Structure formats: structure tokens, C-alpha cells
Amino acid sequence: MKNNAFRGLIVGLACVGIAAAALVGCGTTDSAGTAAYTPGTYTAVGQGNFGDVEVSVTFSATKIVSITVGEHGETPGLSDPALEGIPAAIVKGQTLAVDTVSGATHSSEAVLSAVADCVKQAGGDVEALKAKKGAKAAKGARIEKSADVVIVGGGGAGLAAAVSAAQSGAKVVLIEKAAALGGNTIRSGGVQNAVDPARQKAVKMTAPLIGDLKSILDAKEADFGEFAPVVATLKGQIRDYLASGSDVLFDSVELHMYHSYIGGKRVDLKGQEIHSELALVRTLAEGSPKAIEWLESLGLKFNDGIGTVLGALWPRTHSNTKPVGTGYVTVLSETAAKLGVEIMLETKAEELLVEKGRVVGVKATKADGAPVVLRASKGVVMATGGFGANPEMRAKYNTYWPSMPLSMPTTNTADATGDGIVMGEKAGAKLVGMGFIQLMPSSHPVSGALSGGLWGSAETQVFVNKQGKRFVNEYAERDVLASAALKQTDGIFYIICDQDSAGNPQPGSKNGWGDDVDTLIRNHDVYKADTLAGLEEQLGMPAGSLQAEIAKYNGYIASGTDPDFGKRNFGAPLVKPPFYATIRSPSVHHTMGGLAIDASARVLDASGKAIPGFYAAGEVTGGIHAGNRLGGNAIADIMVFGRIAGASAASSK
Q1: 501 forms bridges with which residues in the sheet?
Q2: Using one digit for the tens of pLDDT, what is the confidence trace for 360-404?
Q3: Looking at the annotation, which residues are catalytic?
Q4: What is the 3-state secondary structure (H, E, C) of 516-533?
Q5: Using CB atoms within 10 A of its CB, is residue 97 exposed (0-12), middle (13-18) or buried (19+)?
Q6: Side-chain half-sphere of 40: how many Cα atoms within 13 Å?
Q7: Angle between helices 278-298 and 633-650 (to 10 degrees)
Q8: DSSP track, 427-482
Q9: Could you tell me the pTM of the whole model?
Q10: Separation CA 6–CA 253 (nearest Å)
């Protein structure tokens, strides 16, 4: 994950160049009024998404000569347009009035801030450079293209749809409003839920997990509505499993469906109940194992280990060998290129073309203002994501949380503004579940990002508040965790780990998100101490509080019961020093509602009929996860329904 130190903070470093004292002095201007500098090379760092972005700037007496981006931990591909384009624009225009790159806002800000620091070191006038406008680019010429399938959105769902459509023989054009592919997928944890007997056979059942299965046997099928047959089948599977005496982890498509149902069934503030749609959840649960096989056939390698990501409810969470969501984006984009998919970046879709009730194309605009018209002979796939980065839209639709402050941060890319939902509704699409928004409980309290911490699988996590006390079952659903966290002092809590549950970090090592662990500790995103007493002191907790709480929790692990909060699935005791605390607070993570679709990813109108030529996949849709999404189900969703949407569009007549 990204480094979660406060955004915008800049740490000036010492000048690494030798200033030529005989040349123009600091802060002066030449006869033409141009800002002048003390010549030399200066270095500073800006705070990016994944930590420090080092920038070196070389000045002559009158101009910025060159800018070099040095060490950084930004996401490859996603940050490249900012780390390459921003320096080029500054040098070309001799200005700091440069627009940030869509989709890489914080990488852009890191470069701009570091360059400003270097300008100051060289004696230049930062405010003058910020006020100076560069040459305005000429508006581009009108672009018109035709294809079989047009994909709107270059995140995981859009890329999966593009590859699937191309594999089905379609000519495909994909447009993405950001300057790089990836969307929220590349920012995600990159984990995927799937029933997987081959990998799950290495996981042993525990008494708590068996207890969970036995509790399902007591469930009344009549309470599950259209899911009643699923529960009936699941009960039979559980009885057979228990009778077998097996100690290998039990899982099934029906259990995955059951967890998705109970995890998503919610009632909002108006008393309106929502639950997952049966056909969509079955498609998800049955399709996710096949999606993993498909991704493996394209070259993505999955790890053998199975865990439980926060809020997943069962050990069926897969990870791949690449950091965060980069593996999906890299493999799919490379495959798309091989299959001849045309990708147009910095191209913002603005309107669907509808003729005689059929969606036949998209109107868009390039970053240079050029109008774009794309015609689709078979279909358009909407894959623009949700509206987590649109505070006004969140506030407009929210009916689940008592308040949804405009200032609440988000884990999302800044481009997740609900464009596809707005366009789809104008084209006649039905919207479902719009009032439900998922908060990620374990986010950075300022940036809202997922990154910047140390923790393991949900079984191993321990949440404590500022008083050093646990306050929730850490294995619960995300909305349950977030609601409990918001009730703590300042909405702040800490994830406590020992050396083992933190992933055995070493000096100079990085966590699973690419963060430099030493930097996290230095910036107080993570606190480290040789003893729990030492953590208490650093965090300002009452003396002895954390020590007593962890001792009690370790006792619950030994007994397999948690009388305080009912946690049933535990990791190992927290006993191995050093100990770590990661500061966390909820932020907006996933908008549950969107365009209504069927199991073929066809977008539905208000009457429930498919809109000809219109398909959708990913967070732009609703109905799959209902009121709360299980952790690990988002990647499953975008891969399963992205594949379906692409294939459905390619076969449309």
C-alpha cells in the first residue's frame, strides 16, 4: 500500500550541488524580469502515495534546465505519466502552474512540491512560477472511430472486458479518462476470493470454523428468501463434511454465496432492506475460480497460500505474486495490446449514443479538448467504477450512514466520480442500491489510503482504541468494523501486531504494498517497540492497558472463545517482539450501488429489460454485493463480470 504520511508535507533536503557564488545571487531577476537562480543542482522530496518521491532540479542563472525524478515507491504504470510528464511540462513552460495528471494526482503533487522546494533552495520566486502560465496547447482535431465493442474505463473490469471481447474475435477500443490504466484496481489490495479445493486443502479446519458451519445448520431456510435452496444445499454439504471426519478446510460455491448474502443483507436508515441478487451472486461464486484459471492462462501467478482479507468471513482469499493490484493491470493490459485492443488514454466519456433504443457508441473528449465520437456495432461496456471520490454524489445518495461528511477521505482514485452511473441513467438504465456506501475501517486517518501499515490476515488482527482496549470482533464485516471504529475517540484505532503477524519486517524491507517499513515508522504511520509497554508509552495509552488487553486476547486464542466480542477465528498469539501499532480510521471505500445488470452483464432498464447494446461490469454496477461487500469480492466481481461483459458485447447482434 501507499505510504500514508500526511499528504503535501515536504521535507527539504540539503543542496547537493555546489552553487556558483560568482554568478547571479539568490532571489534576483534578470533584465527581462525572468526569475533568476543560484546555479546548481538541488534535491528535495515530495510526499507521494507510496512515500517520498525524490526530485533533483538543475538550474542555470536564468532557467530550470532539467528535472530528474530519483528514488520513489509509486506504482509503476499508474504514476509514470506524472513522474515523466510533470517535469517535462515544468521545464518546457518554466512554470509551476502545471495541471496534475488525472489518475496520478498525488504523484503529481509530490513532484510539484519537491520542485518548488528546489526553486526556493536556488533562490527563485516560487509564487511567481506558480502564477506564470505556460503556453496553452492547441485544441486537438475531432476524432471518429468505429469498432465492434467500445469499453469505457481502463481499470480491472474494463481491461478484463477488453481482453475477453478481443478473445471472442471483436475489434475493441478502450477509453480511459486518466493518463494511465489501472483505476481502483491498481490501488487495491489485489486479493480475490474464490473457492479453490487445490489450494485450500493446505488449510486446516479449526474448532471455531467448525462452529460456524454448525451454526448454519440451525438457520431457518425460510429466512433466506430466494436463497433458501442455496442454504438447503449448503446444509447437506456441511452434514456430509462433518460426517466424513475431514480436517481439511471446507468450502463450496454455496458457502461463498451464503457469506455474500449475509455479508450484504442490510437495512438502511429509512427501513429499506437490500440483499444480493441470487443470479448475480451465483455467477460470482461459480465464476471466480474460473477467472483465476483464466488469469493464470494469461500469465498471472497466484501464491499457494490462502488467507482471509479483512471482512471476507472465510479463508478463501487469494493473492498473486505482484504487489497490490499491479499484477492484474499489467497482465491484462499486455494481453490486450497483443490482441490488438486500441487504448485511448486521457479520453473522458461524456455521453452514450442511443439510437432507436440501442446504445451504439460514446461521445468523449480528449485532454487537449479534441471531441471524440466512437461507434460500436455490437456493444458498449461501461466500466468506469463507482463514485467514492465524488463527495457531493455520496452525500446525495447515502441512506445508510448517519452522516457522510464531504470531507471524509477515500481509498479511491480521484477519477472515481460516478461518470458511468450518470451516463447510464440518462440512457435509461435502472439504478440499484445507491444509498449504500462501504467504509474501509482500516484506512489512514488523513489520506484515507489503504496503505502505510503492517498487519496480516484478518485472523491475526487486533484492533484497540486510544485507551488500549479492543472494541469489536476483528473478523466481522467491514461496515460493522467501520461503525465500531467511528464510535471510538476521534474515530481512531490501532492495529496491533507482533513480529510474526506483521510479516516479519526487517530493516530496509518493504511491506506487501511496497511501503518502506523504516519510513512508515519514521513518519509515525507505524509505531514500533520492543515491548507492549513501550507501545503504550508511544501511543499515550494508560500504563498497563495494552499489556493487559493483549494478555487477555492471547488467552482467548488459547481457549478458542472470545466472550467480549465473539471472534471465532484466531491467528497465533501475539508474543514475539518487537510489537507494532498501525494508526487507522474509516474512509470511503466502495459504493455499493450502480447500474442494474443481469447475469450476462446486460444493463437493465426500469422495467427490468436489457437495454440493447449496453453492458456493464465492476463497481459501476449494483445488485451483486447489496449493502456491504465482502473483502476480496471486488476483484472477483470485476474479473468475473468483466469477462462476461466483454464476451456478451462481442456476441451481440
Answers
A1: none
A2: 999 999 999 999 999 999 999 999 999 999 999 999 999 999 999
A3: 478
A4: EHHHHHHCCCEEEECCHH
A5: middle
A6: 24
A7: 90
A8: TTB-EESTT-EEEEEEE-TTT--S-S-----GGG-EEE-TTS---S-TTS-HHHHH
A9: 0.85
A10: 42
